[in-house]
Write a structure and sequence with these properties.
GO molecular function, one term: isochorismate synthase activity
Strand content: 25-35%
Number of strands: 24
Number of domains: 2
CATH superfamily of the largest domain: Anthranilate synthase
CATH architecture of the largest domain: 4-Layer Sandwich
CATH topology of the largest domain: Anthranilate synthase
Domain Chorismate-utilising enzyme C-terminal: 168-418
Pfam families: Chorismate_bind
Distance between the termini: 38 Å
Radius of gyration: 21 Å
Protein name: isochorismate synthase
Number of helices: 8
Catalytic activity: chorismate = isochorismate
Amino acid sequence: MTTSAHAAGQAATSPLVAPLVVRTVAIDTRVADRLLDLVPDERPVTWLRRGEGLVGWGVAAEIRTTGAARFSDAATWWSEVTARAVVRNEVEEPGTGLVGFGTFAFADSPGDSVLVVPSVVVGRRGDLAWMTTTSATGLDRLDEQLRVADAPQPPTGVAFADGALDGERWMTAVADAVARIDAGDLEKVVLARDLLATADAPVDVRWPLHRLVESYPMCWTFHVDGIFGATPEMLVRRERGLVTSRVLAGTIRRTGDDERDLALAATLARSSKDLEEHEYAVRSVAEALEPHCSSMNVPETPFVLHLPNVMHLATDVAGVVHDATTVSSLQLAEALHPSAAVGGTPTAAATALISEIEGMDRGRYAGPVGWMDASGDGEWGIALRSGVVDGATVRLFAGCGIVAGSQPEAELAEAQAKFVPVRDAVSGV
């Protein structure tokens, strides 16, 4: 039995059928050595990095929200769910007990958002592994066992086509954005484009998840309600009073030649265009977190993050939160969204320009995606390097930060590089 609220504004008024009954127990870490191998094709959710994280399946409760109140509606509903839940937690670590997974639309409209409590969650952190079962039946003891799923089959006959805009039209939009920036309308805007992949049969999302986990272990591989990917960008992590955010802005494509890539990394670290773009993103994150922190550490210079396909300028912003009892990780994610890394600067001008010239509906691309436990601790990434599965079709997304001096051809090449992780993952080879 599941409980759900399906419209914005219902979160505070929709009664739950019954309190959720939650039990977390420690399990042998060998069971969780390959977390994805445990997941059946039953509304799977994932949040994995370097062999650790959370996977789950089934639905014990969920809310779907839309509009400007999508975050607050979900937060209100979550407060009600956690207040009514009966929890037996033998592990008492972040990510244990009652856990919800969420994915939120980039814009107020259009797009829907989801916060879901899986029926089963399996987690791994270091030498600790656990299983959480959740039910709305009111039973005190749950006997659902871990099920080893059949191996997913690779997609076949995959063909790719341009989405809303082809390369030429998208470069025209980039040139328009640069002209607006030169005119002083704004400082930075992030423009995205989409790519459509069509297979011969419905795509089993577990296949690209396996590929992404293997190829991009330094990223957070995620899946919630159809959107999946391997994001390198942590919007916000809150754990026991500490908050961190990894900011990425400024990108260069790798060549595969280690010596050449080191030279390119040095070029990236000195690039005035990329450093300017990065500064906007770091500043927007620091300003959003400051009201919630008693102290903060904002490094003066970024480091270069090396990924298999690209390199990014990166900064880890950290702080000590003073309002952890009243502000959850989801609410911190709302405060941070959209950062300059996915929207632009100033935010209002940038998001308005995105709506005007980007030419597509982002849906949940570049919105917060992640998980939260009953204490409000959690991890929310930005849904980048991502795709949305809809039967035999996968819609891929990639975006680039546009500032003064951006060259349309270079930005198109950067977008193509950012498609690579999901494009390879759904190719089926």
